[in-house]
Amino acid sequence: MAKSDIAFSSEFSPSQVDLVDVLNVLESTAGNSGALLRAVQAKWFPKAVVAKNVRLSLLAYGIIADGSGPNDKGSKLHERFHLTDAGKRLMALRDNPDALYAEMGRHVLLKVRGGMAVLNVVEDLDASGIAVKMDAVREELVRRGLHIPKNNMAATRVRQWLEKCGVVTPEPHRVVEARKAELLGSSTQEIEALDGLTSEQKAYARALARMNVTEIRSNEVAKFATETFGVRFPDTGLPGAVLEPLKERGLLTYQKTTGGRGAKPSIVRPTEKLKIDVFEPLLDAVEASAGIEYRSFVRAPWADVLRDLKSENKNVKGKALEALAAKLSFVAGLEYRAWRLRGTTTGGAEVDLLVESHKPVFLRWNIQCKNTSSVRLDDVAKEVGLAVQMDANVVVVVSTGRFSADAIEHAKSVMKRTNLTVVLMDERDIKAIAENPATIFEILHRTAKLAATLKRIEDES
């Protein structure tokens, strides 16, 4: 186990060192680790045992790496260092403090271990009405399963960097949403790929990337973009207004369909450029928040997930069920918070995933996936009870089989009597979402309409 699930950063925080000075020292010592140590001693920390922590922190933050270059295979790599791509980007911005700290903030959130986790906790605690202090942040990080040794200050130093770049306020800490959106709304790659496009064209490209399909009807992507990003597209002329400009950028190809009467939606296919420049940066944010394993679940092809759910191997089946939960939450635009129950510990029988949404208001979702032929009343009742304990607003129960009649009636009863929304998805829904990810919004709308109808009936009675 790592000493901490938050990146090591002793003697490396904006309250201890100036980032521009650190970058200047890296440049002047020209990849010599010994010279770096001596320069740190001369400028900041005279004791070698303390000064060496700066180099270790720069390694942990991914600003430098051991060796003279990424392909250095020689011995005693620790005697040399080189700038990573992140380090080079920071180095190039030394003369522009605003841009420098924006890039540092983006790097901490997307690439530094624990960076996104700290931001998420600050945001969640503030949303719950708590005056956020670091003691509460550390306690919540531990509650969510992160290993943080007693008296470890790594989370505080992450928060200090986020405060320096303007995404977190001083105590009581809050997340500055506009700055967060500025830093995370687009990665450098995505900005370059989508620069100059209209808001509708950008939303369409992002929607197609998030859907992660090989091909799909153009109107389904438009529906997904509308649901996810709130944009509207013309009733006619989608190819000229949106598809053709994206094709010219090399982000997609499309093929007009023929046959029958009237205009038919085109078939749209994402290119490798879209996957590399838009989808991969999106996954970087997922990995920073939820870890590399969760990212691998999101990337897993639907066909593989559906196949592995039927595996005789319990470990394979468990991983597939976790992938199902992760893919459903990703498609719906929900943010990972924690696994409550892992598929690998239940032999692939069930998983529980806690996720959240912030648009248009904060909602906590508990997603329960069951790999069984039938889900009964007791199963749904158990999830409803747990949702109350977890302060969840939405319960999603997913079955690779079907729901019994009494389970469906119980879900309706809960929605009629309480403020909980209970979403039931069976094997038919899973297959439909696998074929067309935009279907998930139809299912959610279906449940929302049902809940509204049930509550009206209750009011009228």
Automatic annotation (TrEMBL):
- The positions making up the signal sequence are none
- Return the SUPFAM superfamilies for the record: Restriction endonuclease-like (SSF52980)
Q: Name one GO biological process term.
A: DNA restriction-modification system
- Where does the record place the Restriction endonuclease type IV Mrr domain? 315-430
Q: Which Pfam families match?
A: Mrr_cat
Recorded superkingdom? Bacteria
A Gene Ontology MF term for this entry?
DNA binding
Among InterPro entries, the record links this protein to: Restrct_endonuc-II-like, Restrct_endonuc_IV_Mrr
- List the protein's name: Restriction endonuclease type IV Mrr domain-containing protein
Organism encoding this protein: Eiseniibacteriota bacterium
Tell me the lineage of the source organism.
Answer: Bacteria, Candidatus Eiseniibacteriota
